Amino acid sequence: MSVVAQLNGVERTYSNGVKAVGPLDLELREGEFVSLLGPSGCGKSTALRLIATLLAPTAGGIEWPRGKPPLGFVFQDATLMPWATARDNVRLPLDLAKVPRHEALMRADAALDRVGLAGFGGAYPRELSGGMRMRVSIARALVAKPKLLLMDEPFAALDEMTRHELNDDLLRLWRADDLTIVFVTHSVYESTYLSTRTLVLTPRPGTIAADIAFPRRPAADPSYRFSPEFADHASKVTSALRNAMKIAA
Amino acid sequence: MTKAIRYALPVALGMAVLAAWELFVRVYDIPRFVLPPPSEIWSALLADFPSLMASLWTTLRITLIAFMLAVVSGVALAVLFSQSRVVEMMLYPYAVALQVTPVVAIAPLIIIWVGFERINLALLILAWIVAFFPILSNTTLGLRSTDHNLVDLFRLHGASPSQILWRLKLPSALPYLLGGMKTAGGLALIGTVVAEYGAGSGTATGLAWRIVEAGNRLQIPRMFAAFFLLTALGIAIFFALSLIEHFALRKWHESAVSQEK
């Protein structure tokens, strides 16, 4: 598998001298679903913003062996423009890329269709439920056909059933689009269900305490949540997380 | 509560007060030059209708132009502030100074500078000074309240600063701007009236001058008539701006969405 991004000693220090994250040494390989798992405030989101190049590292650097791929980003809140309809929110990346209006509208509707929101293109964000808003946000992230999708605790605010549905939908989209995904979460079970690889971070400043690869390629399979294999993986991740917390204490 | 009751209640109260006023003046035989009864104010309004309407139009015209200038200049300066922190630090204290200086105090100076022969321009400047600040401060706040994650998203997709301004920051600031406009509309009217008082009688011909003139001649009913017209004008401006706000925000902003649950 070819390397998408290579992080070399990446660090981010605030202007007050407090180190938020790093040093991080990490290879993101094509087609991976990587979870960044750690306690609140460990710098997971900062790490994601560094990979997105929304933040510049204060030390170290990121290499893109095959050039920086097109990125999609999904925030913890749906982060939609409240004055724009679902369709207009989704076509924003296309508009900014100067895609002709007609084509942008068609692709936006197709993207909404893929996340199960066909027919909701004309709805304003306030008319949609939390889960639907997050679906719009995912459609917006996917509409411009990114290669690397970065997600910052996207389902943390949703109820459990909605979260499970969106987990499965995300896995289907990941496979269909050959995406590489970096997924920030604080849920052991979510990271175990979704990822090919879970990186456990220490409390601030976040560094990689454990790098756990799962042999099973994840699929949208709800029964997996109740299998002994799942329990085994989850307990492995949990003990790694416990150890990471102990290192800091 | 139904819509009919919402309008009927204040109207009923107003009628009752007017009736009580009329009765009070008649029963206690209050001199007309102290407090005229509503019926006489109404007659004065009808008798002087053409001249009062001409004055109303003068005041309204200055108010509206000052208001529009305040909106354009306030938004423009707020946008400039949002693009350059240095400009904001440099200019904001002076904007505040302009706001806190009582318009009555500077009215004579502005009128002398501009000249009595161009009195309407002087009134316009004074009304603009009063109406300008709420537009500036509200729009500045609105531009700063833009969702930072959305700004990041725009940057991630290669948006230029002008795209971020037009497609993100200005729409985000719109509810704040509309709120500022409601304040500024009333203030523009107050600014115009105060400036008319400052100008004194003779050259200015707005409603405030009618009040001064009628007062000097002890035509108290006429004073009241002009006074009521001013209030009606202020209310009309407020309602017009509320209507604009409603139509601009009704589809998406929490403040304009009716509770249906």
What topology emerges from the helices and strands here?
The complex is a heterodimer of chains A (249) and B (261).
Chain A: E1 3-13, E2 19-29, E3 33-37, H1 44-51, E4 59-63, E5 71-74, H2 86-90, H3 92-96, H4 101-114, H5 130-143, E6 148-152, H6 160-177, E7 180-185, H7 188-194, E8 197-201, E9 208-213, H8 228-248
Chain B: H1 3-27, H2 38-47, H3 49-83, H4 85-100, H5 103-114, H6 119-144, H7 148-156, H8 161-199, H9 207-216, H10 220-249
Outline the structure in words.
The complex is a heterodimer of chains A (249) and B (261). Chain A is built from 8 helices and 9 strands. Chain A is of the alpha/beta class. Chain A folds into 2 domains: 3-69 and 147-248, P-loop containing nucleotide triphosphate hydrolases (Rossmann fold), CATH 3.40.50.300; 78-146. In chain A, the strands form 2 sheets. A 6-stranded mixed beta sheet of chain A has the order 5-6-7-3-8-9, sandwiched between helices. A 3-stranded antiparallel beta sheet of chain A has the order 2-1-4, covered by helices on one side. In chain A, α4 (101-114) crosses α5 and α7 crosses α8. Chain B is an all-alpha fold. Chain B folds into 2 domains: 1-30; 33-256, Orthogonal Bundle (MetI-like fold), CATH 1.10.3720. Helices cover 81% and strands 0% of the residues of chain B. The model of chain B has no long low-confidence stretch (mean pLDDT 89). Chain A binds chain B through residues 49, 52, 54, 71, 73, 75, 77, 79, 81-84, 92-93, 95-97, 124-126, 144, and chain B through 147, 149-150, 152-159, 163, 167-168, 171, 174, 251-254, 257.
